[in-house]
Amino acid sequence: MTVPQQRTTKPGAATYQDLLAELTQSMAELQTLREQAVEALTPAVQEMVRSGSRDIQRIEHTLDQLLDHACLPEGLALFKTLCRHYWTLDQHATASYINAYREMWDADDNETQEKP
Q: CA-CA distances (angstroms) from residue 50 to 35, 47, 54, 109?
């Protein structure tokens, strides 16, 4: 009498390929959301810079939002634009945002560049 082989995975358990496909889809959705956020923030940044806004709370709130999306080239460009404007108002606070960017996003770039 032979004993049936037991399954090593539960019925309905996702395979590696299924998980990878789900992750890829989630990453694509996140990318789309980031692109939409940058697009939505662009007019606000342009208006603040053009008008010479001195509204610190609005500038910092926008910088906080842009920091989350500075992994995209367009997001980074907006972040830098608003930082240049904010520099004229508060250099210390602007430096804090720049350091936050470096801690959040530059570490990945530096690790990649340091590998042979």
A: 23, 5, 11, 32
